[in-house]
Amino acid sequence: MNVRRLAAIDMYGSRGTTRRRWIILAEFLVGVVVMVTWGVWLLASAHGLGSRVLGLWLTGAGLNYAPLSAYAIALMRPGALDAELAGASIDGELRRYTVLQLWVFIPLSLVVLAIRDVLTRPRARG
Question: What is the model's pTM?
Answer without folding.
Answer: 0.90
